[in-house]
Amino acid sequence: MAIWAIVPAAGVGKRLGAEIPKQYLSICGKTILHHTLERLGRVRTLSGLVLVLRPDDKTPVSAEIPESLNVRIARGGEERCHSVLNALKILEFELASDDWVLVHDAARPCVKPSEVDGLIDVVSNHDVGGLLAAPVSDTLKRVNDEGEITGTVDRTELYRALTPQIFRFHVLKRALRLAADQNRIVTDDSAAIESLGLSPVIVPGSTDNIKITEESDLLLAEAIMRQQNSPGVGSP
Question: I need a surface site. Which of 24, 27, 91, 118 has the fewest CB within 10 A?
Fold first, then answer.
């Protein structure tokens, strides 16, 4: 059974407002992208990784790639879902239909390799796949167009989708191709799978697996990494 990772890194991070794409910003002495790839490189069963970059990206990414990783480069598409589909095309002659593809956001550098290993263990006998997710802890409100509260949402069965998300190769390829043919933009790979009427499995993940979106997330990610690497905590 082969498991390949896909890391979409073709975005520019408009909401962060930095002069360079957010994946090249530095945290704890390394770029966000380097941290992310380094942690995926510690996943014990990973066969290789496809890194998706913008066609005009001139950054020397070889410096960001750990030596332990078998990495290929794909061209980014218009949206994230198109970038993942481009990466899948590179893997078409590499993977069998039932092999696995694990998709992880480049902007989630705090992911714990042990949790990725756990995700893979849980889905190994599943027909579809699954994803890391965290239970919603805040009280959720439903509002109208005027911003007035119309109700409180029961959060008992609600989870925040994280990454990685891992699916059978043929299932993910079919789901994203269908979305592209229908001109649907999907920002979550699981959502594409769900549109086929399939049900991925949820695997609880840590809330410190944050996605860097706003400037304040940089400070939070640095604090998380320092805590994860502090004496007595052990390897994340």
Answer: 118
| CA separation for the pair 146, 40 (Å, rounded) | 44
In a domain, 151, yes or no: yes
> Does 234 reside within a domain?
no
Helices (H), the chain: 32-40, 80-90, 113-123, 169-181, 189-194, 215-228
Gyration radius (Cα) of the chain, Å: 18
Place of tokens 């940089």: 218
Instruction: Write down the pTM of the prediction.
Output: 0.93
Q: What is the pLDDT of residues 77-120, one digit of tens each?
A: 999 999 999 999 999 989 999 999 999 999 999 999 999 999 99
Q: How sure is the predictor about 211, in pLDDT bands with cuts at 50, 70 and 90? A: very high
Give the range of the structural domain holding residue 163, as residue numbers without chain letter: 3-228
What one-letter code names the amino acid at 135? P
The total of structural domains in the chain comes to 1
Instruction: Give the H/E segment covering residue 140.
Output: strand 140-143
What whole-number distance in Å separates Cα of residue 44 and Cα of residue 235?
Answer: 14
**Assigned token pair, 49:** 């990784």
Q: What is the CATH number of the domain that holds 107?
A: 3.90.550.10
Q: Say if strands 71-75 and 48-53 run parallel, antiparallel, or are unpaired.
A: parallel
State the angle between helix axes of 169-181 and 80-90 in degrees (0 to 180), rounded to the nearest 10.
130
